[in-house]
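Human: I would love a firmer grasp of how sequence relates to backbone shape in proteins. Could you go through the record with me and say what the backbone is doing? Here is the record:
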Amino acid sequence: MKDLFAGARLLIERSSDITGISWSVILKNVYAMAFGMADELQMGDNVRRYLAVASIRELDQIVRSMGGAAGSPWHLAGLGDLVTTATSKDSHHHELGRMLARGAREGIEGEGVHTLAMVRQHGLFRQADYPLFDLIRSIVSQPGDAGGKLDAFLRLNA
């Protein structure tokens, strides 16, 4: 694999925790939407810092509950992908969060939205055990007043 990408600026790392890495890659799209919301609402760097830590903590808890190894979300496929997806101006999920903060109801589609639906539909884990995940689910399922919901969440949890 390294020979194939030699000279490219694609950084990869090996992991034997396929379950943990897979869940990290899937769920980061959900959490990235919160960053877009906070950015659209101009909540600042301190909120972004909180979202990063809260997202990774929850990711680690979910990964472990789904059979993955503790710490897997702290690697490139977890934290690395989260930072990229949550902060890039070219990120679809960051833009979805911005749209949700503006109260958009149309065009809210993507892997993160699909993941929220699949977790609920199949009862993959108890969403209420993960407050930030549950907040994002609430905003996606009932768009409107994302700012008020995010503010209330931060007052209770940060």
About this structure: Residues 35 and 154 are 13 Å apart (CA to CA). Residues 18-40 form the longest helix (23 residues). The two ends are 41 Å apart (CA to CA).
